[in-house]
Amino acid sequence: MKKARILVQGIVQGVGFRPNVYRIAKALELNGYVRNLGNVVEIIVEGDERNIKTFINDLELKKPPISKIDSLKLEWLDKDVLTDFNSFQILESSSNFSGSSVIPPDVATCDSCLEEVMNQGDRRYLYPFTACTDCGPRFTVIRSVPYDRERTSMEEFPLCPNCMTEYKDPEDRRYHAEATCCPVCGPEVFLYREEEIELKNPIKETAKLLDEGNILAIKGIGGTHLVAKTTEDLPVLKMRERLGRMNQPFACMSPDVSTIGSFVEVADYEEEVLLSRNRPIVVLKKNHDYYLSPYVAPDLHNLGVMLPYSALHHLLFTYTHAPAYIMTSANMPGEPMLTQNQDIISKLEGVADYYLLHNREIVNRCDDSVVRFRGGDMAFIRRSRGYVPEPYDFSNINKDLNVLALGPEIDVTFSLLKEGKCYMSQHIGDTTKYETFLYLQEAIEYMMGITRTDRIDVVACDLHPQFFTTKLAHELGERFECPVLKVQHHHAHAAALSVDWGVDEIICIAADGVGYGEDGSAWGGEILYSNGPEYKKMASLMPQKMPGGDLTTSYPIRMMMAMLYPHYDQDEILDLMKTHYVDYFPHGAKEVDIVANQMDKEFNLTKTTSTGRVLDALSVALHICGERTYEGECAMKLESTAYPGKDKFDLPVKIVQNNGINVLDTSQILSSVLEKKLEGNPVKDLACSAQRAVSQGLAELAILAAEKKDVDTIGGSGGVFYNEAISMTIKKFVEDAGYRFLQHKNSCAGDGSVSLGQAAVAALRYRKKYS
After folding, report:
1. What's 2's DSSP letter?
2. CB 74 within 8 A of CB 56
3. DSSP state at residue 426
4. Who's near 443: CB < 8 A, 6+ residues apart?
């Protein structure tokens, strides 16, 4: 007889891991016990040595579907250390263990639970909160660890005798399924207008109201959606008017992949992600038979679509023939998604016609994740529900340092590094909004709580001195009596990409809208050499003037005029603007003269190397988009216009010297595009060639930098790399030149993973000091 102690770390709590251990041990006739110890599962086994070794192999081979084993430590025990066991038992959890606990993310309703919901003979028939150890809410209901029912929002719903029997049976898939419940003992859903509406089936009535053209707020697992019909223009336009979002694309939910395929293209790899237990929104290309309202995603060639991920969603679609409903986050622009019933009712007054609510508390709001594919490779646009808070492995970077990284200011996430695991938060949003800034602080306190983090060694933040996150970093630095490390925005992008691939050094093409540069200007088209803790700027797009500063982001005609201004006679540029583009200036011809005066007198000008601003200028030059009403609008519409186009034009890709570094002359590209546009050439082809020219220029700059630094790896980061055509063009140029090209795979190319990069830079920079 042998005895062994096994400590398992990873996603092993709240996923049915202990009953699975129990079943494996019983099958192998092993005695002992299994229990949660805060951040690990402890297993003591006694029996035949060969069976114990088989048991250890089976822990990995037969683990529950949503579990993940990061480490397994085996210690053979002296047979006199413990008394003999007569059976194998599951013991109660113990919190007497230091360290962080890996909480599983929320996952979609499993097939077994869905079968029960749709089975008239089952006691959970038509019940929208059905869950088990293989599915349902986790992160959104947990208050503290260890993950047991009394530490979740399900504590308010004592189990009925039938559910308790399942809950206590190790052979049942609901053994210690903390979110389990049924119509007798679980949360309830109800329809509300001015008061609660007494209905036998509120979900059925919700589908009827939606099909009649009403807008509903539907409270789900991690927040609330605004929901509307997609096959008629009026409900969509009504929602847009009420929200004040006249152009921003809405995401949709559809009942199954077959239906999704009736209005968008779905590749095999996209279908796999749509059907995954993570259930993100997947951005898909509209097909030739697209029949939803054009106002769902206006002027774009693609559309974000997801499948139902809760029983409530599945039930909604059983009562309708609608191919899809709009499912967009229920919040006013820039504010956090609503979770509390009273807030949902009061803040969405005048927006929603009805409210489908429930009485289970959402402990952690968690927006839907969004992904997109580029050439068959998945990219996160937003990493949130279904993935958070699964940590990144930083064990090779720093196992001792505790780092809190706060991200940028908009599209914020924060990251917490502890014990070699980096926990990146759910999507937080725009911290210039007071409610979102408060949400950020609450989410930080929560994450520190569930990871049992009582000290911070370094706080990392953006270099920009005016960001609210920068100011918060200094407050937290004082609170924890630790240093504050400011990390340049694009260096953080490069570091996040390096973490994603486990590379030590990289030439990174950092292309986005804006990031505060070391020189105080707005960067956004940089070629950086990054080795982790340090970086060097090697090249960039040509610095361009921004008359009126941030006004150019809202009205890109100002950017276009500024980029062309030095290359035209003044009378010629004024005539061009007033003849062909005057409608894009909010104040008409008068504003054209004002911009010219600003340029002449060097008044109220800032400088930028931003790729985003160049793409915006190209978009307005081609009369595609003249005003940005949501983040990335002009560039996204440029991409959609270019999508069916052909690369027919040989545009100038000219690299020159500026302040001792290589820069791409973007004015030459814009001027050539404008010239060909005025000649009457097709806009879609010009858009295609313009994107290729910018891509080629960025690739050539990176290749020159890689040659200079003798680095064989080039990568792309920043929001511009969500553009499939730009990403794939750069990839081709780089790989044709003999270099390896990397893009984000498990992190966001955009600002959603800046905090991850900040944490990596801090961990590497302070590795020696705190190790």
Report:
1. E
2. yes
3. P
4. 364, 414, 425, 426, 428
State the pLDDT at residue 83.
62
Domain 2-90 adopts which CATH fold? Alpha-Beta Plaits (3.30.70)
Question: Token pair of 534, please?
Answer: 């340090």
Domain with CATH 3.90.870.40 in the chain: 189-370
Report the top-level CATH class of 523-528+539-743: alpha beta
382, β-bridge pairs: 370
Looking at domain 189-370, its CATH class is alpha beta
- 63, 24 Cβ separation under 8 angstroms: no
Nearest by Cα to 156 from 190, 123, 179, 128: 179
**What pLDDT sits at residue 148?**
85
Q: What is the pLDDT of residues 203-228, one digit of tens each?
A: 999 999 999 999 999 999 999 999 99
Give CA separation, 115 vs 107, 110, 131, 164, 340, in Å: 16, 9, 11, 21, 30
* Pairing status of strand 522-530 against strand 403-405: unpaired
Low-confidence ranges of the chain (pLDDT < 70): 38, 79-84, 95-101, 768-771
Peptide bond into 644 cis (omega under 30): no
Integer Cα distance of 392 and 193 in angstroms: 44
CA dihedral 433, 436, 437, 441 (to 10 degrees): 180
Rounded Cα distance between 237 and 243, Å, is 10
> How many CA within 13 A on the CB side of residue 318?
17
User: Which residues make up the CATH 3.30.420.40 domain(s) of the chain?
Assistant: 523-528+539-743
In the chain, how long is the greatest CA-to-CA distance? Answer: 96
Residues spanned by CATH 3.30.70.100 within the chain? 2-90
Distance CA 546, CA 607 (A): 6
Nearest CA among 5, 34, 13, 20 for reference residue 99: 13
Question: Distance (Å, rounded) from C-alpha 763 to C-alpha 771?
Answer: 10
163/184 Cα distance (integer angstroms): 9
Cβ–Cβ under 8 Å, residues 125 and 116: yes
Q: Which residues contact 254 (CB under 8 A, 6 or more apart)?
A: 260, 305, 306, 307, 323, 324
Structure tokens at 416: 């917490």
Pairing of strands 2-11, 68-77: antiparallel
Cα separation, 553 vs 559, whole angstroms: 8
> Are 723 and 634 in contact, with CB atoms under 8 Å apart?
no
Contact 67/46 with Cβ under 8 angstroms?
Answer: no
**Cα–Cα distance between 229 and 220 in angstroms, integer?**
18
Angle between helical axes of 468-480 and 434-450 (0-180°, round to 10): 40
Task: Kindly give, in sequence order, each residue whose CB lies less than 8 Å from that of residue 355, ignoring residues fewer than 6 positions away.
Answer: 191, 192, 193, 216, 217, 218, 219, 341, 344, 345, 348
| Per-residue pLDDT, 232 | 98
Q: Is the peptide bond before 146 cis (omega within 30 degrees of 0)?
A: yes
